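Dear H.,

Thanks for agreeing to be a second pair of eyes. The structure we're designing against is below in C-alpha cell form, covering all 254 positions.
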C-alpha cells in the first residue's frame, strides 16, 4: 500500500461514527472558465511579467527550436524533438476549431544574443528579450552550474514562464546524451516521450497536478499531461479536459 493510500484509509476510519461511514470528502465546486483563466494568469504573473498568457491575441503561438545544441544533434533531430508541438496543435484544432500553438522551425541563435547567453544565468534570465511577441523559444541550456535555478539541476527539461522559453538542460542531459541518440531512450522524457508538450503547458498557465497549494496555476491532468507513467504510458499527452481548459485561457479571436 502506498503512503497516499495509507493516509486515505486512515481518513475513512476516522470519519466513521454512529450515523454510518462517510464515503468521501466533499468535492470542490466545478471551476468556471473565469476561474481557469484567472489561475493561468496568476501562474504567469507569479513567475514574472514576461510570460505569454497575456500575449494571446487570437494568433497561434509559434514554437521555434534554436540551433545551439551540441554538434552531434542534427537539424533532423531537432525537428523530431519539435514535432510533438505540431501534433498538439492539430489536436487542439480538432477539438476547439482553432489553433492555439503551432510548430515553428529550427532557427539560428538570435543575432542580438550576447556571448554566453545560454551559459550564464544572469544573461539567460534575460532570454525573453530574444524572442518575438507570440513566439516561444526552445534551446539548449549549456550551463553546468547546480545553483541559481531548478534547485540543483536534476531536470532534463524545464519551462520558464518568466521568459516564454523551454530548455533542454546540459547539467542533467550530460548523464544521458551521447552521439548515437540526443536524448535518453526508454522514458517519458525521451525524444519520443513528448516531454516538450508537458513543458509547453507550463508556459500556457498550468502547474503539476500535485503542486503545492501556494503555487498558482491550472492543474494538469494526472496520468496524461502529468505523470503519464501512472497509467502505464511513456508518452505525455493532453487530455480532453486539458484542451477544454486551454479554450478558457485562450478564447477564439483573442
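And this is the sequence the design step returned. I haven't edited it by hand at all.
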Amino acid at each position: 500500500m502506498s503512503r497516499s493510500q495509507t493516509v486515505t484509509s486512515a481518513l475513512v476510519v476516522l470519519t466513521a461514527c454512529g450515523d454510518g461511514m462517510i464515503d468521501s470528502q466533499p468535492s470542490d465546486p466545478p471551476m468556471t472558465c473565469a476561474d481557469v483563466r484567472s489561475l493561468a494568469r496568476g501562474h504567469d504573473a507569479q513567475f514574472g511579467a514576461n510570460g505569454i498568457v497575456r500575449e494571446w491575441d487570437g494568433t497561434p503561438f509559434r514554437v521555434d527550436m534554436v540551433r545551439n545544441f551540441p554538434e552531434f544533434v542534427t537539424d533532423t533531430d531537432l525537428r523530431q524533438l519539435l514535432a510533438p508541438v505540431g501534433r498538439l496543435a492539430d489536436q487542439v484544432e480538432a477539438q476547439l476549431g482553432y489553433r492555439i500553438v503551432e510548430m515553428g522551425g529550427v532557427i539560428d541563435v538570435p543575432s542580438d544574443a550576447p556571448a554566453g547567453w545560454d551559459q550564464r544565468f544572469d544573461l539567460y534570465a534575460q532570454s525573453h528579450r530574444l524572442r518575438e511577441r507570440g513566439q516561444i523559444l526552445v534551446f539548449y541550456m549549456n550551463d553546468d552550474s547546480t545553483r541559481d535555478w531548478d534547485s540543483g539541476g536534476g531536470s532534463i527539461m524545464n519551462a520558464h514562464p518568466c521568459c516564454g522559453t523551454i530548455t533542454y538542460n546540459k547539467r542533467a542531459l550530460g548523464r544521458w546524451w551521447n552521439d548515437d541518440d540526443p536524448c535518453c531512450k526508454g522514458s517519458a522524457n525521451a525524444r519520443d516521450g513528448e516531454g516538450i508538450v508537458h513543458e509547453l503547458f507550463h508556459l500556457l498557465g498550468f502547474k503539476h497536478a500535485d503542486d503545492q497549494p501556494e503555487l498558482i496555476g491550472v492543474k494538469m491532468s494526472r496520468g496524461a499531461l502529468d505523470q503519464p507513467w501512472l497509467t502505464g504510458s511513456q508518452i505525455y499527452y493532453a487530455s480532453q479536459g486539458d484542451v477544454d481548459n486551454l479554450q478558457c485561457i485562450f478564447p477564439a479571436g483573442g
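Two observations from my side: Residues 75-96 form the longest helix (22 residues). The mean pLDDT is 79.

Warmly,
E.
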